[in-house]
Specification:
With about 260 residues, the chain is α+β, with helices and mostly antiparallel strands. Helices cover about 20% and strands about 30% of the residues. The strands form five sheets. Strands 4, 5, 6, 7, 8, 9 and 10 form a seven-stranded mixed β-sheet that branches. Helix 1 crosses helix 5. It is globular, with a radius of gyration of 19 Å.
């Protein structure tokens, strides 16, 4: 009951909720990672009423795993150009090869389907157009004979799920109720924690699972517990026809990383 009152109070104090943030990283098959020039910082909620130990951006964001892309965008994706940022396109004179790889279990890459040149093959187009929602994939593009681009994407619904009380209240709830664990964190050891969750068509959370540890077991367990008992409901995601659909999201916490 106290947690619910705290969460509702936070909602009124902070009427402007933050938007879902998107992390954009280039990763190889061994999951070594580097930040790309067009990385968009995940949006944290930094509200503090009490003077407490506050590691910067301890809760990094709640978002799809990779760069979000809708099915309506994939339907018109016939070229590798679709997946590159404009500033990268300006550097491309020729496309050598385009490879589509699916990503499962957060880090396992399929062998992929390759095609020479700029245009996607029928097999690549078929795979893209039949991907289930929340699928993760990478488009590996080799251009100019030596440039390699690896934009990662997550297929999202046309309308994404939303937390009823706002992400600002959600992050403040997590921080306030995990403060004891935060006080014990070793910043030098802190890693990129990732907690997967699914917003069901009934507006309830399910399938919560920790895929990557923050390297602090007590903090991991507390975050998992708090998300499992989160007050309030979610507005379910919707497809292009307005039907309610499930959506998988990732809570990023600890430090930014792959």
């Amino acid at each position: 009951m106290k947690i619910s009152i705290l969460l509702l109070s936070t909602m009124f104090l902070f009427l402007a909720s933050t938007q879902i943030g998107v992390g954009y990283y280039a990763t190889d098959q061994k999951m070594s990672c580097k930040k790309q020039d067009d990385f968009i910082m995940l949006t944290p909620f930094q509200a503090s009423i009490k003077e407490e130990k506050r590691i910067a951006h301890i809760f990094q964001g709640l978002s799809p795993r990779f760069n979000p892309i809708k099915r309506s965008q994939l339907i018109t994706a016939f070229s590798a150009r679709t997946f590159l940022k404009e500033e990268h396109l300006n550097d491309v004179n020729s496309f050598d090869q385009t490879t589509l790889k699916l990503i499962s279990n957060d880090k396992d890459y399929s062998e992929g389907i390759s095609n020479y040149g700029e245009m996607l093959s029928k097999e690549q187009l078929s795979q893209l157009n039949n991907l289930p929602l929340s699928s993760n994939f990478v488009v590996e593009i080799r251009a100019n004979g030596y440039h390699n681009y690896t934009p990662h994407f997550t297929l999202i619904p046309e309308v994404q799920a939303e937390y009823s009380l706002g992400l600002g209240a959600l992050f403040d709830y997590l921080r306030t109720n995990s403060q004891d664990e935060i006080d014990q964190l070793d910043e030098d050891r802190l890693g990129p924690g990732r907690l997967y969750l699914t917003v069901g068509t009934d507006g309830k959370l399910k399938d919560l699972k920790l895929w990557n540890s923050s390297r602090d077991e007590a903090f991991d367990e507390r975050v998992l517990e708090l998300m499992g008992t989160l007050p309030g409901d979610w507005k379910p995601a919707e497809d292009a026809k307005g039907n309610k659909v499930e959506q998988e999201l990732v809570l990023f916490f600890g430090i930014i990383g792959c």
